[in-house]
Amino acid sequence: MTSYCRTVLDRAGVGYAVTDSRGNLLWCNRALGAVLGVPVEQAYGRSLPALLPGVPEVPAPVREVLVPGPKWLEVRCSRLGDDLMYEVVDVSAWRDRELTVTQEADALRRAQALGRMGTWEWSIREDRVTWSDTLLEMFGFAAGTAFDFELYSQLVHPDDLPMIEETLDAALKTGSVFTYTHRMLRPDGKERVFECFGEVVVGDDGTPLRALGTAHDVTQSSRVHDELVRMAEQDPLTGLPNRRALTRALEQELANNGSGALLVLDLDNFKDVNDLRGHAVGDRVMRMLASALQSRLGDRLIARLGGDEFAVVLPGASPKDASEVADGLRDAVAGFPLAGIGTPARITVSTGLAEFGPGDSWELVLANADLALYASKAAGRDRVTVYEPNHYADTVKRVSVLDRLRAALAGNGLALYGMPMVELTTGQVLGHELLLRLEDQQEPYLGPADFLPVAERSNLILEVDRWVLTTAIDALVAQPDPRLRFNVNVSGRTLEDPDFGNFVLDKLGSAGVAPGRLGLEITETAAVTNLDAAVTLATQLRSFGCRITLDDFGSGFGSFVHLKHLPITGIKIDGEFVKGIETSEADAVLVSGIVQIANGLGLSAVAEWVERPSQVDALKRLGVRVGQGFHLGRPIPLRDVVSAERMPPNGALSSQVVGAEDGARS
């Protein structure tokens, strides 16, 4: 009976798989192997979340996942003892039909409203095609233009023409209806996408007499679809594949018993470019460097892992070959012409190299390359280091940080400090941003810059963010004064947690806290990197009454564009624009523009890094109402924020002046 069931499952059109609790495949049927693009026997032991990015890693109801192809999958995950069982259904055809119905309805509405419907008729015996004037205009020609099928074929994208001819041939043989979508380069040089529907009219003897059809311009919806696919696996700043695309490619290479090498590159001192020339120039340099690296590699995969880190997969490469490639990339970065960009900073690159082969996992390979990269940094940067087992000592240190953080979560070793946000005219404290500190009484002391990046490279950050939010809400319950309002920071990883929004709302609801007393701050970089997730979370929480602030506004490329897409209630002006506001005319113009836009959109605006009285005066002249920084108030323990009496007017503005360096450590 067991053999019979296994045979049935193996022949099923639905994909089934069983993984252990960490997501490693223990069994799958042939249908799932086809979806993965990996032979069933070689899939065992591989990470299903890596091969199918987006699948749930814990039991979850049906979830739709978009994978390269592109394909739409419905994935259900359920418990099977101590293991997990996955059911994967390819619903691409259904989605295509749904899209077709939507486009047909849209075309009908437009035809009824505007009277524009592109039609054509093919007289088969005479081999003559008649085009409607509307369709000719859609193709870029004047009404009445002589236009035959040969000219039409010349304008159709050459990759699409064989598909059109095959579709028409099949329809003529069967006398059935048909549809196809193709690209066309119009005479004005613009590429458009057309979706065509048609039917064949046959005589009494079954001979095709003519074919009738309509054409709809679906360029916009096609671009939206392409953008969704691109955003899933593409870095928004550089256009390179992202970490998700890299791990999928590496896991597929390993699943097919491939061998080769992985390079992880980190741009040395890239922060100098941002500090000296600002983030707009930094973004420009990052895009140019990414293009230079990609041109050196040709067809080989290079991905941006985030920040100033890149990775390169080199299938079949020996350590010697991979080292030569890495040296070439190092030379390309070192020779990059920064002088014309207006900054004297010199950029070099540190590289870690790790071999991979059958039996390895993508996590191990990436970790080994990371260790080699750290060794390159420690040895003085601007060099290539091949992974060696003794690099493992560095991992021990990182694991130690995670262990301390886990212990702090379990044993009251974390603390929150409140930094006031102050009305610049009156000095009234309007709320506090909550900052995380590790107070576990262990040596060495770890500041946020020491433990948060480590946490954000693991799932531990999800627990940390939930602890921060829970602690903030508990404090609001303890002090019901509606004037006490908190902002908490949300990491980029938490944005991708589909349950976080419900977690926040459940906590607020059960605690009886007014949602307006809680605000979430999302950095602009995290929001752009996870745009869809940021929009979903912000929409959900804002509709409930929570405040949503875009932090470090102005630090990224195309900042103002993001205001169109993110349903936020406020922005925090990046400190880079504020620290020299009294002396820099450019900063003053930019801040003034940001304030005007914020006012026009009904958003609050808070200036960060307010460290001197002269900054307060300059910001007030530019229309900034609220500020934050060490001149206005240092972070104090959350318990003191909750128990303190309300600050008197102008009290915050009487604080002693501190240096910008101190403010940067807040």
Automatic annotation (TrEMBL):
**Which SUPFAM superfamilies does the entry mention?**
EAL domain-like (SSF141868), Nucleotide cyclase (SSF55073), PYP-like sensor domain (PAS domain) (SSF55785)
Q: Where is the PAC domain?
A: 178-230
Name of this chain's protein: EAL domain-containing protein
Per the database record, which ranges form the GGDEF domain?
258-389
**Which species?**
Lentzea sokolovensis
- Where does the PAS domain start and stop, copy by copy? 129-175
Q: Where is the EAL domain?
A: 398-649
Q: Which InterPro entries match?
A: Biofilm_reg_signaling (IPR052155), EAL_dom (IPR001633), EAL_sf (IPR035919), GGDEF_dom (IPR000160), Nucleotide_cyclase (IPR029787), PAS (IPR000014), PAS-assoc_C (IPR000700), PAS-like_dom_sf (IPR035965)
